[in-house]
Design a protein that fits this description.
Length: 141
């Protein structure tokens, strides 16, 4: 089996596990997300356990994986090299947070929730794609 095929199969397996985790943790439920973000109202802290569990796996996992000379199915790691904060990064993070708080979705859970065939999910997904395309056209100018 070729390396690109192994990469695709590994990405598919990781995506399936990630999607299942989103469903089990209810991260695909906008009401759950909005309840978690509503810290001054009827706050639902249960997603803290999801985030804590993710960090408990990710932090040691990154340390172990980055000890390797290269990933299993690639010649090298693709890690960010930029370390500074700039206006575009801060504005993008703020826009992401506002959108997540208003809609109760971010890209991963929105893609996963498409299988529900619920119209608002498709509307959000279409708006997300339109925003990505608009930014791409703006950034190329």
């Amino acid at each position: 089996m070729s390396s690109p095929t192994k990469q695709l199969l590994a990405a598919l397996a990781a995506g399936i596990v990630f999607g299942l985790g989103l469903v089990v943790s209810q991260m695909v439920n906008p009401a759950k997300i909005v309840g978690f973000l509503d810290v001054t109202g009827k706050w639902d802290p249960t997603l803290l356990f999801v985030m804590g569990g993710a960090l408990a796996v990710t932090i040691p996992g990154f340390r172990l994986v980055l000890r390797r000379s290269h990933p299993l199915f690639a010649g090298g790691f693709s890690l960010p090299t930029k370390k500074d904060l700039d206006r575009r990064l801060i504005a993008g993070a703020a826009l992401f947070g506002v959108g997540w708080g208003l809609a109760g979705f971010c890209p991963g859970p929105a893609i996963t929730a498409l299988v529900t065939l619920i119209l608002p999910v498709f509307v959000f997904f279409a708006a997300m794609l339109a925003g990505e395309l608009a930014y791409d056209r703006w950034a190329r100018r």
